[in-house]
Amino acid sequence: MILHELIDYSTLKMIWWLLLGVLLIGFAVTDGFDMGVGTLLPFVGETDTERRVAINTIGATWEGNQVWFILGGGAIFAAWPPLYAISFSGFYLAMFIVLAAMILRPVAFKYRSKRPDPSWRNGWDWALFVGSSVPALVFGVAVGNVLMGVPFRLDADLRMTYEGSFLGLFSPFSLLCGLLSLSMLVMHGGAWLGLRADGVVAERGQRAGSFAAVFVLVLFAVGGGLVSSGYVSGYQITSDIDPGMPANPLWKEVIVAPDAWMRNFEAHAIFWLAPALGFLGAFGALVGLQTRFEGLTFLCSKLSVFGIISTVGVAMFPFLLPSSIQPSASLTVWDASSSHATLFNMLVATIIFLPIVLIYTAWVYRVLWGKVDERTIEDNNHTAY
Amino acid sequence: MELSVVDLSRLQFAMTALYHFLFVPLTIGLSILLATMETVYVMTGREVWKRMVKFWGTLFGINFVLGVATGLTMEFQFGMNWAYFSQYVGDVFGAPLAIEGLTAFFMEATFVGLFFFGWDKLTKRQHLAATWAVAIGTNFSALWILIANGWMQHPIGAMFNPDTMRMEVTSFYDVLFNPVAQAKFVHTVSAGYVTAALFVLGISCWYLLKNRHIAIAKRSIAVASAFGFASALSVVVLGDESGYEANLNQQMKLATIEAMWETEPAPAAFNVIAVPDMERRENLFAIEVPYVMGLIATRSLTTEIPGIKELVEASKDRIRQGAIAWDALQKIRANPKDVDPNVRETFAQNQHTLGYAYLLLPFTDNPLTATNEQIDAAAWSAVPNVWPMFYAFRIMVACGFFFILLTAVFFYYSSAGKLDYLREKRRWVLHVAVWAIPLPWIACEMGWFVAEYGRQPWIIEGMLPTSAAVSSLSVIEVLITLAAFVALYTVLLVIEVTLMLRAIRKGPEDGQQPDSPHAMPVSRAYPIAAE
Q1: What are residue B523's phi and psi, to 5 degrees?
Q2: Does residue A346 belong to any structural domain of this protein?
Q3: What residues does each domain of chain B span?
Q4: Closest by alpha carbon to A58, among A315, A362, A382, A369?
Q5: According to DSSP H, which parts of B250-334 are helical?
């Protein structure tokens, strides 16, 4: 196939780095509010009907949203194979916990309403809580670890050995990132409940969302402070690197440098837009939640999620997964991608199919749009979740 | 027995995959049956067909979510447990998985919400379109997954790149149109159709036996038996196609399925029953049907099928050639930026056998200096255990032929309008259909066992041994997740079956039956106990 020569290899790597961001943000923005609502579920609903209101604001669409997670996994596998291999095997037990929690979600949504027994339903509510809050927390902890560097080595066969432990994943900084991620999704979930639920469920959701927004502002500021002060060191490539090189992570030199994660911001002031969006979005969401501007609140909350995730991506660029014990084996955009042909083929598939996905998803949301209140649930007692 | 990380990871993959495939075939088949029934509803406007869609849709939903839940694990455990595999072939293998998410699973998961919640919000035709979108999405999903799996069985369109130490795509077209993948896809979705058909058929027969929901049961039997008969024929015929492809690409798999130790003069006989002995490398006992095997596998009277011993001899040559490739690779690796062009040339010529050199690594550190005994041991290590292959395959095939018979009988009685004859005079036939419900699942699981266990010791046929593909994990880590997955999946399976039986006992709404004691009371909010 010569067709892939149409776009040069280094450009394709850049495009796939951007698409990785699109996928992660797509997941956090769509399934993020499902996770926020799931986390809030036991607290915004006191009666069964109230809980069903919360569940049915996401009941019909969460399944499609979750595909962002599956697609994210598949796309990382296809476009960044070493990243897929090293991160998921390195974070083995943490990843297992995420999967076990997420496995509970589809089942809980579907089975909860199958029996009227209160203890049955209460049990599934807690399954939804665990299935939503635990992944939200662990994803943040994982990002914190990625920022600090992960203890893996690569031998000449590119076989990875991981020298960390499960408990080693939890440091003050990574826990802070975990709480930030959880707060961010709870804020987002609160904004969603304001938009789609009515009555007491919406009010409680908005109140919880406001608290979460304050947490987001504080934790994001503290996290940023820890990185910019050099408490969390970054990584820096010191050898010449050819962006069009074959994807072999061992062909470069990397050092640990306290201010390395700040250099992209220093070099290009425009990148400050990312953290600025993170703060402004969360602040806007906070104001919106207090003043009940529902549509604007949700938009601000989305922008905040976008800004916070972009901040991490921009700070680390071109790093994807730094190694704390063999820095030169760190995975970067230039040396951890798939081959030229695969990146091209996958890009073609994405250009054709992603817009189609977005179009039908938008249509489905439009069809199912409308406030859910206790009346809706009682009228549809048999068909609603 | 001391279990290694490789053994435990294999066990975990087998367990999670087999559990996943308890739910997948029913989703694949039932989605098409639902779309078919709804099409009849939209075309005829008869309410009974809508009630059928809603009832079978309820059962579909209970099953569907566990397919989704267990599928999550499948997407990520290549990276978790098979990191070197992921690194080694992600360039080829990852693409179909990603495209599956993008083109198929998104569609299935997005429209399934409309299927359940869109009845009052969509026109009849729009809802029908949503149902078909679920069915098409589900089936496309299977296509992409089987393209990925087919590539593990027959890795074409890719080549090892010594600079990146992995296999990379040379022809995406070949990967997509891999004949093994195509044969597997049609065989697997047909198996899903049979599963759903026998599920609908069995439950409907149970209603006939209980004298309940007669109108819905008869129509369901009509659809399921016709669809099931066609699918059962297709699953057997296209299974045969898989056998034909296996003879071209995975001769060892075929030889172990047949417990065929020696190459026999064409056309080879088919062993109906055999007692294979791995130690003595022969069958202690066998009942043969002459000619049949040769005809199935080669579609000729004169082509020989190589036996296990001949295949082992052939793989010894590949191991020796692989050692040359392995040695050249070590030299390239040592100084990748400045390699003697002759070494690259040597590697390029022998690289297709590199995987065979890896077979030697459990026996020696340097494949190039391996002794004949080590080569012999490595070659024999590439033979899967014969007896589980032999019997798993025969159970699957026996089920397949039984499905043809069963669906044919019901197709006849249903299309001749004689189901009442069965109800009144031949009730045992209905009983057989009820008891046959679990059989497609057994056949499916046996099929996957043959496909995957039969590929061992390779994770990618001829390219990478399974033992070289694992992650750097400890035994205890894998033991924890294995035990936890078994526990979690088993609990969920028990809950699923309980809900399924409940929904079946409650039955469809058809006005014939007063509310059963299991029916949910209408319009009542249930307060949640204080935490």
Answers
A1: 50, 65
A2: no
A3: 5-252+383-506
A4: A369
A5: 251-257, 292-298, 308-334
The count of C-alpha atoms lying within 13 angstroms of the C-alpha of B369, restricted to the half-sphere facing its C-beta, is: 3
* Phi, psi values for residue B459, rounded to 5°: -90, -35
- Asked if the peptide bond before residue B290 counts as cis, ω within 30 degrees of 0, the response is no
Compute the nearest-CA separation of B157 from chain A (Å).
11
Distance from CA of B367 to the nearest CA of A (A): 16
Measured in angstroms, the CA of A158 and the nearest CA of chain B are apart by 7
Asked if the C-beta of A354 comes within 8 angstroms of chain B's C-beta atoms, the answer is: yes
Q: Which of A99, A109, A162 sits opposite B72 (nearest CB)?
A: A99
B138 touches chain A (CB under 8 A): no
A73 inside domain? yes
Cα–Cα distances in angstroms (integers) from residue B207 to residues B29, B403, B429, B430, B440, in the given order = 21, 20, 13, 10, 20
C-beta separation of B362 from B467 below 8 A = yes
Q: Which residues of chain B lie closer than 8 angstroms to A79, CB-CB?
A: 94, 98
Sign of the torsion formed by the C-alpha atoms of A368, A374, A377 and A380: negative
Is A150 inside a domain boundary?
Answer: yes
C-beta separation of A35 from A132 below 8 A: yes
Partner B contacted by A107 (CB < 8 A): yes
Instruction: Determine how many CB atoms are found less than 10 A away from the CB of residue B77.
Output: 25
Whether residues B481 and A92 touch (CB distance < 8 A) is answered with yes
Q: Based on the structure, what is the number of domains in chain A?
A: 1
Residue in A89, A248, A349 closest to B83 by CB: A89
Residues of A in contact with B110 (CB under 8 A): 61, 63-64, 67, 357, 360-361, 364
> Following DSSP, what letter does each residue of A137-174 receive, concatenated?
HHHHHHHHHHHH-B-EEE-TT--EEE---SGGG--HHH
Nearest chain B CA: its distance from A209 CA (Å): 22
Domain limits for position A74: 32-230+274-318+369-379
Flag whether A139 is in a domain. yes
To test the contact with chain B by mutation, choose from A50, A56, A63 the residue with the greatest count of B C-beta atoms within 10 A, namely A63
Task: Identify which of A337, A336, A329 has the alpha carbon closest to the alpha carbon of residue A160.
Answer: A329
Decide if A43 touches B, using CB distance below 8 A: no
Tokens 């779309």: give the residue: B35
Q: How far apart are CA A203 and CA A181, in angstroms?
A: 23
What ipTM was assigned to the predicted interfaces of this complex? 0.92
On whether the CB atoms of residues B293 and B260 are closer than 8 A, the answer is yes
- Answer yes or no: do A110 and B62 touch at CB < 8 A: yes
Q: pLDDT by residue for chain B (531 residues), tens digit each?
A: 578 999 999 999 999 999 999 999 999 999 999 999 999 999 999 999 999 999 999 999 999 999 999 999 999 999 999 999 999 999 999 999 999 999 999 999 999 999 999 998 999 999 999 999 999 999 999 999 999 999 999 999 999 998 899 999 999 999 999 988 988 999 999 999 999 999 999 999 999 999 999 999 999 999 999 999 999 999 988 777 776 776 677 888 888 888 888 887 777 888 888 888 888 888 888 888 877 777 777 777 777 788 888 889 888 999 999 999 998 998 888 877 777 888 888 888 888 899 999 999 888 888 888 888 899 899 998 888 888 998 999 999 999 999 999 999 999 999 999 898 899 889 999 999 999 999 999 999 999 999 999 898 899 998 999 999 999 999 999 999 999 999 999 999 999 999 999 999 999 986 544 444 444 443 333 333 332
Among A111, A153, A162, which would you mutate to test the B interface (most chain B Cβ atoms within 10 Å of its Cβ)? A111
Max distance between CA atoms of chain B, in angstroms, equals 85
Residues of chain B in contact with residue A246, where contact means CB-CB under 8 angstroms, are 161, 163-164
Q: Does B381 touch chain A (CB under 8 A)?
A: no
